[in-house]
């Protein structure tokens, strides 16, 4: 005998001796009904299961069964959520994580069956088998967390598995910097070279290399002796992108010293000479950091040139970004408050400055203890 309906959404199969509960999740985007069957040994059990299902559905504790894989969800999330709302460099970074790692490891897993164990095993494999650092793997976790929380908000999954894992602990980066004497030596060696302006913008103002490379002449006010930091030039793979600064606090106005005014005027005069000498071959990009043809300098090329300059002259190893750390360290040694240092660097909060420059807090701590000890003598 065929399966027969006992009551609404419950039927009985007398051959198998089982009750079938029909659970209706509504319609999908195409108007097709989403349904699922569960079997029960008795009518009372079937009725209880149906009551629980309806209560959970009413209280949003049920989601419709979907066969969407992690790959499919990440593709949707990238195209509809990330691409319209994030910087191109962020999009590029996310795509590399997905293409190089996530897709191969977990891409075929349906997101409704993705477990904390899947993720925990994935993190461990990245560090143990692929040699990725804890900080790098933490970026994978942050990506998954954002994507899967969106899946939960859009009723694709009931719970977010990233909430039930132990992500790698971020290891704070130890900032490397020069002392005043080392910085003076660097300035002396760079004097007269094209790198002089670059290293002094980093060391005297604490600018990021992307901010230096993204600086336009229209942002330099020689009359008011002000520099408006509002753009950055950065790399997304092989692409070079001119964009707004990192965040609102990074958009700032800084005072220009006599030395920086002199160097900026010298660079502007050099570019004017090249424009006259090269004629139509000169590409006037309007950038402060430009080559002899007027083309903007690449951030990676500037960093590489600086690294080679350091090595050639036997200076302690440091990155161009290390001069930004040097600026903060020297400013703190001269008594500048952490808040003012953070504002000059374009940090959003003093806690950001304190987290990056823990050695400054240690120095301030020592000075405070010394003052207390002196007061009690």
UniProtKB/TrEMBL annotation:
Residues 173-371 form the Tyr recombinase domain. PROSITE patterns: CB, TYR_RECOMBINASE. It comes from the Bacteria. GO terms for molecular function: DNA binding. Residues 68-152 form the Core-binding (CB) domain. Keywords: DNA integration, DNA recombination, DNA-binding. GO terms for biological process: DNA integration; DNA recombination. Site-specific tyrosine recombinase, which acts by catalyzing the cutting and rejoining of the recombining DNA molecules. Belongs to the 'phage' integrase family. PANTHER family: PHAGE INTEGRASE-RELATED. This is Site-specific integrase. The lineage of its organism: Bacteria, Bacillati, Bacillota, Clostridia, Eubacteriales.
């Amino acid at each position: 005998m065929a399966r027969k309906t006992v009551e609404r959404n419950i039927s009985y199969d007398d051959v198998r001796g089982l009750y079938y509960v029909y659970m209706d999740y509504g319609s999908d985007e195409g108007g097709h009904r989403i349904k699922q069957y569960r079997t029960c040994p008795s009518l009372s059990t079937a009725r209880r299961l149906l009551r629980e299902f309806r209560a959970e559905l009413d209280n949003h504790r049920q989601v419709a069964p979907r066969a969407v894989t992690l790959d499919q969800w990440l593709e949707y999330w990238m195209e509809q959520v990330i691409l319209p709302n994030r910087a191109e460099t962020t999009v590029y970074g996310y795509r590399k994580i997905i293409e190089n790692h996530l897709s191969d490891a977990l891409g075929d897993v349906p997101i409704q069956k993705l477990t904390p164990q899947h993720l925990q095993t994935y993190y461990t494999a990245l560090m143990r088998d692929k040699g990725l650092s804890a900080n790098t793997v933490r970026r994978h976790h942050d990506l998954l967390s954002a994507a899967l929380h969106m899946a939960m908000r859009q009723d694709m999954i009931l719970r977010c598995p990233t909430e039930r894992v132990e992500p790698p602990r971020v290891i704070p980066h130890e900032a490397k910097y020069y002392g005043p004497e080392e910085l003076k030596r660097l300035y002396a060696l760079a004097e007269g070279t094209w790198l002089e302006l670059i290293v002094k913008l980093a060391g005297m103002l604490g600018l990021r290399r992307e901010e230096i490379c993204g600086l336009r002449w229209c942002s330099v006010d020689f009359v008011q002796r002000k520099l408006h930091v509002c753009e950055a030039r950065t790399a997304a793979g092989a692409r070079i992108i001119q964009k707004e600064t990192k965040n609102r606090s990074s958009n700032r106005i800084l005072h220009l010293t006599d030395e920086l005014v002199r160097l900026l005027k010298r660079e502007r005069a050099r570019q004017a000479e090249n424009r006259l000498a090269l004629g139509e071959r000169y590409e006037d990009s309007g950038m402060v950091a430009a080559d002899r043809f007027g083309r903007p300098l690449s951030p990676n090329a500037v960093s590489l040139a600086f690294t080679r300059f350091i090595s050639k002259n036997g200076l302690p190893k440091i990155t161009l970004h290390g001069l930004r750390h040097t600026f903060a360290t020297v400013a703190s040694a001269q008594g500048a408050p952490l808040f003012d240092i953070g504002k000059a660097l374009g940090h959003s909060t003093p806690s950001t400055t304190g987290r990056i420059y823990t050695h400054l807090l240690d120095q301030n701590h020592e000075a405070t203890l010394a003052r207390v000890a002196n007061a009690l003598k």
